Amino acid sequence: MTRVLDARDVSYSYPDGTAAIEAFDLTVEAGERVAVVGPNGAGKSTLIQLLGGLIEPDGGTITYFESGAPADDLRDRIAVLPQHPDEYLFNSTVRDDLEYGPAQLSIPKEQARERVASLADRLELTALLDQPPFRLSGGEQRRAALASAVAVDPDLLLLDEPVADVDADHRERVLSLLDRRHEQGETQIVSTPNVDLVPQVADRVVLVDSTGSVVADGPVTEVLADRSLLETCGLEAPTVARVFEMAGVSDPPLTVAEGAARLSDLLE
Ligand SMILES: Nc1ncnc2c1ncn2[C@@H]1O[C@H](COP(=O)(O)OP(=O)(O)OP(=O)(O)O)[C@@H](O)[C@H]1O
Ligand SMILES: [Mg+2]
Question: In sequence order, what are the beta bridge partners of 160?
């Protein structure tokens, strides 16, 4: 199995001296879906930018695909959806933003156009393609930035809060796109403070506390079932688990689908 990402002893401080990431290690194998979960200010967005090569670590190393190549030389294989997508939508129309990545990588125009049309259709952006990106709503900008990230068809996709501001219908579209891409072999790293989202986007959780230290790294079902660990990080158990716990169930479900199955058993 290919090691897609190997981050060793990575640290990063902002110019004002804020130490956002210290001695961070993470290894991700091909095809994994990893959620980095932690409270506000833990350093998740900083980490996504570091792992995606948008900012350079002050210390440590990040190796991609077992090669010595830096992220900037691997823009055809690594893509990032940042937390503030408006900063990365800078062309005069949404269409130009979506076609920008493929054009930089010299992907033939016709192929790029087909790809963009298909992504716009899946994420319901078609009617917005001729709009300037700054006119889009927050949720529309996030969907446009996601389409722009995946337009290069990366092997490693890093997503910072991929469904923040996105309504329920479009959230399903985003999640189904991510599922499909994962089934096709894409490795995904998602950052979120939302534990309810985790079972829908990941199989493995890296839980970080408010200082950015890793306090757990394991299967979703194990990490999210450990309530005291979540509380250490200022997080609650998934909503569905809390509902079942309130009703006196000691081994609550972690996902809505599991909860629904348990309820229908009870109601039979
Ligand atoms: N440009 C900046 N200059 C100085 N400090 C910053 C800057 N950006 C972020 N920070 C600080 O770095 C730390 C980590 O911020 P980061 O945005 O990575 O957290 P986060 O885990 O993504 O939080 P959230 O869940 O709110 O998105 C915080 O203490 C934050 O205040
Ligand atoms: Mg963030």
Answer: 191
